[in-house]
């Protein structure tokens, strides 16, 4: 294969996409380039992935092609995302300013047009105020409509530009040449207020959309933030601080206490506990010794160690998580895409009807057929204004989001609401979702030996666990401190790797740790305590043994408590017809016990983050509409993959950012409420769209003069403008009904 035939794949940020049809235009334009095999446009992340033959074309040619139709590419692969975010932020700020200024100018136009139309020079005042609203602050509607027209396409911008542009031009003609109509016995009306209001309303809708889109990359930024910028490289001359990007497989690296691990690798010297909750979801840190594997983005705790780099850059587990989240986020289509598709058909139909209206009047009209035909054509275009269509989704979303916030639910966008309407399968993470995610002492059983001074021994245990590095030690310390016990003055404290801790008090040795302590020290475990231990283990609890050199003094049960309401929530979901699954990185024994306690039949244990996402995908391939509920970084892939992603409010920032819906209280019982709100909101959106189109189906024939041959009725363009405004009011009013629904 020659160099010119080698396939190269590159992902680049795209600028200038304002709707789903723009993404289609970018894709078709790039796929038309010689040497391009495929182009995948991700409208959610504003990126395109192009596969092309390396010697025949390249990024510069792609950029030139897109610039010719009004879009652009950022070719800087290192800082491209930052540059794109900067441009998007500037665009949002500019749109906000334009919307505010347009609103300020539109208010007096509405007042004059509706209430003060008879004052001297009223039309000229409105002309002066409306002109900048359309052609300065609203110029992008006309520019985008022109771009679409060049390629034989139409979208919402086309409708806005046509209806407001023709209304404006017709009003200007009536302002300067009113005698033309007076001579024909017709009073000329102007429609400046209708044109200005449409521009402001649609700009407001776009502002809401841009606000939602501006947050789509924050989850990715936080995931990337888990990677340290620099790392300590071990060389023959000592230690050297280098950029993480410069690390190569095989390099020897040093990780100090509190550091984030920079790349995937394997320890060869030292030991420490590492917080791997982003991978496993489990709150307990894992002991790492020589030969153990570590992963990029996980956090070292108290110890330090050296390790060999094995996977770097895009090969690390964290990089794979980032890529999977990006891919899953971009695979979804928002509700507004439906509106854009309909608008693409709707505009040509309206144009055809408007021209047909004029033609019919010219052919079959009476004495004033030209003037009546022109007015009928303009009335058709005015009444077909897409204001109600444009407001149908954002108004319902705004009210739905407000209703959710009142009930402890933060909803990000219409996408979540659309998916929630159809959910039939719920997948739950265990730790932090069903359970509290924080180990606690749930039981302590002492030996029956009467010579044991429990208060003194609790002081010894407290002193030992306070010095322990093991994460479970914190649970024991909290438990003992709650009993108002003071630590004893222990000596010769030692940490026994993989077993527990050892200390001396009053000349006697004491030990605390796992069952391995018993094997090492030959301490006797009484029969009664054996039975207690078995019971603890059956309840999926971790057991800590507190012993001296001769016998076990106490056994301590530590568990991750099930949240109040988890069982009730599961039952409620199952009663509503949902199939409920539980996924966990914990072992099968613990998973089975938790599932049984909350009433879940379907569960999987020992599941890695990518396997959670794969499981969600497999359910989707079976035709299921899946809601994923989680709280940790390890859940982010599955959350992004799911049709509806729900995060716990007390979970990780990344899980919350990836999720489309967040439960502030972290109470699972809120899930049923969220699904009910989702269903109600989507019904409202569909009702709004239905009435927006029914309004046009009735209004357009009336505007065209369908009743004129019957009873001489010809709709006045001013009434058409009022009807247009009424359609918007009806849509907003229907959306406001969401405030009255009950979610309990």
From TrEMBL:
Q: Which organism is it from?
A: Pedobacter cryoconitis
Q: Which GO terms describe its biological process?
A: copper ion export; copper ion homeostasis
- The record's principal subcellular location, in a coarse class, is membrane
User: What residues form the membrane-spanning segments?
Assistant: 99-117, 123-146, 158-177, 189-208, 342-364, 376-402, 689-708, 714-736
Q: Any idea what this protein is called?
A: P-type Cu(+) transporter
Q: Name one GO cellular component term.
A: plasma membrane
Q: Where's the HMA domain? A: 8-74
Q: Does the keyword Cell inner membrane apply?
A: no
GO MF terms, alphabetically ordered: ATP binding; ATP hydrolysis activity; copper ion binding; P-type divalent copper transporter activity; P-type monovalent copper transporter activity
